[in-house]
Amino acid sequence: MAEKDIDKLLSMTDSKYRLSVVTAKRALQLRSGAPSVLPVEQRVRTRNLVTQAMRELATGKLTVGTSLLDEQRFHQDYVRQRQAQIQAQLNAERERERD
Q: Which cysteines are disulphide-bonded?
């Protein structure tokens, strides 16, 4: 990201540490399937979700502490998805053992 965006992001929080925590939480939300608030043409053309989270915060469409998505709900969804993946792997292994 450009330095001007970093300065803007730092002005939105009380410290660079809080900014890093907020950015990391938003990146985890995106990884868990949260929709991006950016229009398609403004989305980052990279898989780096931290960069995308920083861009979202820099646009002002998300504000620290108020409009970030429900973290607990997305964490629960992520845990459910992961458990389903593990169960599918176990079932596949059991099927191979039967053959």
A: none
* Dihedral of the alpha carbons of 1, 19, 37, 2, in degrees to the nearest 10: -10
Please state the CATH superfamily assignment of the domain spanning residues 3-98 in this structure. Answer: RNA polymerase subunit, RPB6/omega (3.90.940.10)
The domain limits of the chain are: 3-98
Q: Tokens 């229009």 identify what position?
A: 39
Task: Quick: pLDDT tens for 4-58.
Answer: 678 888 887 778 888 888 888 888 888 888 888 887 776 767 678 888 888 888 8
